[in-house]
Amino acid sequence: MPAPPIAAHLSHAQHALSFTQRELAEFLGVSVRTLARIHGGQSVLDPKTVLKLATEVYRADRELAAQILGTIQLTLVSAGLEAPPAAPPVAPPAPAPVRARPSAAALRPLLDAVVCAVADAADVAPKVVRPSVLLTLRTVAAVGLDLEAAGDAGLLDGAAADATQA
Fold first, then answer.
1. What gap in Å lies between CA 80 and CA 95, rounded to an integer?
2. H helices of the chain, where?
3. pLDDT tens figures, 70-81
4. How far apart (Å, rounded) are the C-alpha atoms in residues 9 and 30?
5. How many CB atoms within 10 Å of residue 1?
6. Domain segments of the chain: what residues?
């Protein structure tokens, strides 16, 4: 349904502004006769003048100003009379899940498996490589490298390991 013409709102605007018909005509920059033609629907106000009227009416009657702006397809926000509504606050990201630290009893078999794999690859006894493997693991922990980060960087791929040895 189209917005009613400005004529439907002029009397209300005149009342809200406490203007006489002559004062309203002067404010709008038209003659009293032209104002009467606008009231009768025989003439119209240009959008710039409608915006001027709505801006003045806004101080006295927000809803009437919104209706007046509707006649030229504007809103209080698009006309610059009100700020747009604030965006809803953005929820902070969920904290990363805290991983439970495995017990020493659970880690010992894994550590022994790593030591044995290194010993097997070097063709030596596990007791020979254990100090070097443990020192390497302590160094990795000291610099903050974890297996997930190493995997993401491709450092755990066989091809990457072979390329670094070449």
1. 40
2. 7-16, 21-28, 32-39, 47-58, 62-70, 104-122, 126-142, 147-152, 158-165
3. 999 999 999 999
4. 16
5. 3
6. 7-70, 104-165
- For residue 150, what are its two tokens? 């190493």
| Per-residue pLDDT at 145 | 77
pTM exceeding 0.70: no
CATH architecture of 7-70: Orthogonal Bundle (1.10)
Write the CB contacts of 27 (distance below 8 Å, at least 6 apart in sequence). Answer: 17, 19, 52, 53, 56
Distance of CA 41 to the CA centre of its chain: 45
CA distance 92 to 41: 55
